[in-house]
Amino acid sequence: MAGEPPRRPHLRRTGGPAPGCPDPPTPRAGRLTTRLSPTFRSLANPNYRLYAAGGVVSNVGTWMQRVAQDWLILLLTGNSAAALGITTGLQFLPFLLLGPFAGLVADRLPKRRVLQLTNVMMAVPALILGLLAVTGTAQIWHVYVLALVLGVASALDSPARHAFVSEMVEPEDLTNAVGLNSASFNAARLVGPGLAGVLIAAWGGGVVATGCVILLNAVSYVAPVMTLQRLDTSRLAEPAHVAAKGLRAVREGISYVRHRSDLLLVLAVVFFAGTFGLNFQMTSALMATEVFGKGPTEYGLLGSFLAVGSLAGSLVAARRAEFTLRTVVVSAVVFGVAVTIAGALPTYLTFALMCPVLGVTALTLITSANGYMQVNTHAAVRGRAMALYLMVMMGGTPLGAPLLGWVGEALGARWTLLLGGAVTVLGVVAAVAVRTVLLRRPVPRFDPVVAKRVA
């Protein structure tokens, strides 16, 4: 039927050796398999364990910088919501502009090497911003420029990072690995914001303190570079080879997604949620400072409370046997309602207690959408499909963040949550209605062209 995901045989790894040639080595779990809970079964894979360990270290640093950078902006601008929105928009603008080409890089080049390069690229702006802040010479335009540079590196990194998981683990473990990736990210989120807030306060709460925290993030990028180098390449599945080149390959990725109404629905859902609902860093900073009159420690704790729920949501997702469209849609609606409720809460305590709920609903949505895209996409086009997913989810931030920043300055911080949650719910409902209409129209199946190998 048009619009349905391909049948399971279509999801087998492609791009293997020619008939009659031996299969490439596959990831072997080893003796850990029998000792691990189903929630953590992907960690039985030695390559995935190394990869996840490096990711945790880097993610802690990333969350520390997010808090420190936001606090630096507030110090440099006198609590400007617009400046926070502009910085967030600049950091995610490259996802919108470079998305399809970044996906092609992920599909055509060795993903392990791409990830090593992008981690070095992300360390450079962190190092420069940290040094500027520590020396007391940082200005707001420095933050804007370096946020854009970081965004370019992140846009190149993300499609390769998401698609690389399928080369490390067996196909039946992919949904689990996607959930554990989110759990790793949010375990770091549980530690990073609170640690950053404590360190900034302990070091004086000024510009220099934020610079020291940002420098710690620059150092943290060493971990993924080293762990990627140590991976056993003989255990990595050989990726499919892309036959199309240049713009034709980019168009092929777009055409593949365009002919799949289920993938289009996922993209629409994450667009509304990512553009209007998932601006926690900006909205929590405004709620902490403007509405509740709190300092960096309390602001950092809000991030940790969010992470408690996010970690729980991602661990629950890791236990799922599969990700469904129903889960994606329902979790998006529940998330939008939760964001709206958070905007109406009267005290810092009630807002903080709501943060875990926001975390659970947000990560259920993100992990389900991410997992659905990866598991239900042909291996030869997975990097480009994930680039479109990231372009829609994160690329919407340059549109939503400045708009919500303006709303925060014009109407107050609460309205960034009230309107963001309401628009998310209405957008998801509209997307489901549009897909219902599209399913009534026949759509021809489109499969990517995979390059043939010479035996």
Automatic annotation (TrEMBL):
Compartments, record wording: Cell membrane
Record Gene3D superfamilies: MFS general substrate transporter like domains
Superkingdom as given in the UniProt entry: Bacteria
Main location: membrane
Chain intervals for the UniProt region annotation (Disordered): 1-31
Membrane topology classification: Multi-pass membrane protein
TM segment ranges: 71-94, 114-134, 141-160, 200-223, 263-287, 299-318, 325-345, 351-373, 385-407, 413-438
Keywords: Cell membrane, Membrane, Transmembrane, Transmembrane helix, Transport
Domain (Major facilitator superfamily (MFS) profile): residue spans on this chain: 263-455
Cellular component terms (Gene Ontology): plasma membrane
Keyword flag Transmembrane: yes
GO MF term set: transmembrane transporter activity
Pfam families: MFS_3 (PF05977)
Name under which the protein is recorded: MFS transporter
Organism annotation: Nocardioides jishulii
